[in-house]
Amino acid sequence: MAPSPFTRLLPFLWAVLHLTGAQQTFSSSSQLDISACPITFYGKTYRQFYVNFTSESFVVCFGGFYSPGGPHDCLLVTPPDSQRASLEVNRRIPLMEMILHRNLPSIQSRMDCFAGFSLQHGGQSTSLALVSFGRLSALYLYTTAAGTVAVDVHLSGTRVRTVTVTNTPGDKQIRGYLDTSGCFYSGVIYSPGSQVNSPETCLFLNCSEDLGLQVSACGPLERCQGNGSCIEAPPETPMPRRTCTVVGPAVLDVHGQMRLVEDRCSYALLSAPDLQIVATFQERRRKDVGFLDGVILQLGRSDVHVSLDPGGRIRLNNLTMVLDGSAQRVYGVEVSKNRTGVTVQVSRSNLTASVFFNGDSVQLHLEGPAVPSLGGLCGNSSGTLGGVRPPEFSSTGCETRYSDAVDTSINCTLMAERCNVLKGAPFSSCDTDPEPYITACRDVLCKYGDVDGLRCQFLEVYARACSLSSGAALEGLRSRAECSPPVGLCQDRTCGPNEFCSETGPDGQPRCLCRALFASEYLERNTLGGSTVCRQNSASLSLVGCLLEDKGIDYTQLHLNDPACRGQMNEQTRMVTFSFNSSSCGTEVLTNSSHVIFKNTIRGQNVSSDVTRYTQFHMDSSCAQTQPDVQTVAFSVRGSTVVQLATSGSWNYTLTLEAFTDAGLSQAVQSSTELQLNQRIWVELRTHGLEESTVVMVMDSCWATDNGTSRYELIHNGCANPADRTVQVERNGQTASSVFSFKMFSFSESSGDVDLTCRLKLCFRREESCSPECSRSPTRRSARSNHRGAAASILDP
């Protein structure tokens, strides 16, 4: 599709923008004047921008500088190449007005002006404009940078919208648009002209295009009577607020008690009317430690559930949800996702629960009258596990406990010291008791080790608990604890059912490692995969992807004897399969008197010497198949085609034997065909169901009989009867079929039809030929004249 005139003029348009207005350049937190072009942003008019750079975003705020979760309306932009940008305030440009009218049908009024920021992403220009249309406004994002540039819209500290522009070599989006008109109230965006008249909640709202937001509602000390009137509310006792945390195998309930899960079952963390929150556990590196693996919210009826899976995947009744950057509501539950994890908000009549899950830990922030009497491990972790194990979410035998060898390399004293940092600054400013977190951290790390970012997970959940309980922001905790920012590195990384995601790859990237129980069956046999699967004339060997990854082996660099034959990864099972047959991929074929052996080797390419040694030690693959039996097939020359199913061990194929009156094998002999003595007949034996590139058929012997005792040899040891020059072998041991011809005869002592019987065998293609070596004596007379019961036509041509 040819680009539109608008697309072709956009680079010129942005060049014009950079020339028309007064430029304000900044490289640090700045307060910028836009009084020449006031912007009405979701119903509020602003005359100043507050801009600053953080490690995660370039931020533009209205009403004050940015603070996470703060009260201001802000735009958070993908961090630019450098902490330097500029702002220009510009008058109306008709071409830009036309572009926005075309892409935002909800805005058709006249453009007044706009304020545009200029940045650099990936060495390319990015422009972000806030455009005024009087009481309406729009956000316009333009970039040619490769990859994705995003703008998150935060209103009153909550992200409500996201605008993204993604450019790939095959698809350049370049532009993004958002209507920022309307009003925002109590977490909801209302379009211009919207009205709410709700006597039940005493909310009367008007989002006027001219006057902005007009709201009438009960005050903070009032209560709605349900008829549109408010009365003074009686003093309320503070609602109980509690936090329940699960990190790895450790469950910390709302009372600060700790429980370690040692199996692979699912357990209810919270049980309340119309709501059950279940944590699923699976082993990771050790068989005797169960790790948090997922969270399930069961809502009301048992057939409605929201599943939070590793990798940040969210499923509603097993259907994957796709979030566009803003929160979604399903069955009264609000679901949102960012770079750190997934958050689910759910409210019931006497309980509000906020669930945050990042793949390694889950934290429940609970509030309401029902908190003190909650069921599940969060209410009381010291009860029996069987009573909180939902059978519909737990597999049979999941409660079996396994033992594992003690890891003597773990220094428990050092682990305790690392966990004890929760007692010092900056954690000392938190009013949440650190002892349960320290105990859980010490017990788990002493058994499991400080791997997979586990220690930092304990620090993060404690910091989050402090923030939830008192709003305390623990500055500098990550640098003191030597932990990276809480970004879910394993988000959007899908591992197999027998794998878990680890954030400790040698290149700093997440990788999929094997779960201990799954890996144990291979490690006990000192192998990287299963046994060779043998078929009729082919074989395959599957290697375990996560075992290869753990050894640092890139499966794409492995191949069979033929470098062109490489393994294929099954994305569901994460198994890497190498397949070959007896004539492909450099397979060696060996035979003896009883077996045919296919042999191949998986080899490394561009890998270290250590990996090469390990690969060669484990990657030989061979199949020994029983030699197929010699088959015998018989038919009458005047009869129809004979079809016979041959079965010998793992060999299954079909044999056909058919006679023809022409050398082209196109005129088959039928029961009604008139055959003359001395007429030449061609006979074809053919196999079906065998791979001709691997196996050929060899005709060993054929003879004629008269349904009695008379027998006449036509083919012997794969060659024509040397005593009979009328017999000719046309093809034998070269393909899936063998052909010979002879002149028709009859037995002198019988008036019946001539019957043929043939014996054949299979030959595997190798360097040597499968065709029999035949020679005739030049002075040999016909054997038919001497044969007992000789044929009536015995003369040579």
From TrEMBL:
Residues of the signal peptide: 1-22
Top-level taxon of the source organism: Eukaryota
Keywords attached to this Swiss-Prot or TrEMBL record, sorted alphabetically, are: Disulfide bond, Signal
InterPro entries named among the record's database cross-references: VWF/SSPO/ZAN-like_Cys-rich_dom (IPR014853), ZP-C (IPR055355), ZP-C_dom (IPR042235), ZP-N (IPR055356), ZP_dom (IPR001507)
- Residues of the region (Disordered) are 771-797
Domain (ZP) ranges: 533-781
Name the chain's protein: ZP domain-containing protein
What PANTHER family does the record tag this protein with? ALPHA-TECTORIN-LIKE-RELATED, ENDOGLIN/TGF-BETA RECEPTOR TYPE III
Give the Gene3D superfamilies listed for this entry.
Zona pellucida, ZP-C domain, Zona pellucida, ZP-N domain
Composition bias of kind Basic residues appears in 778-787
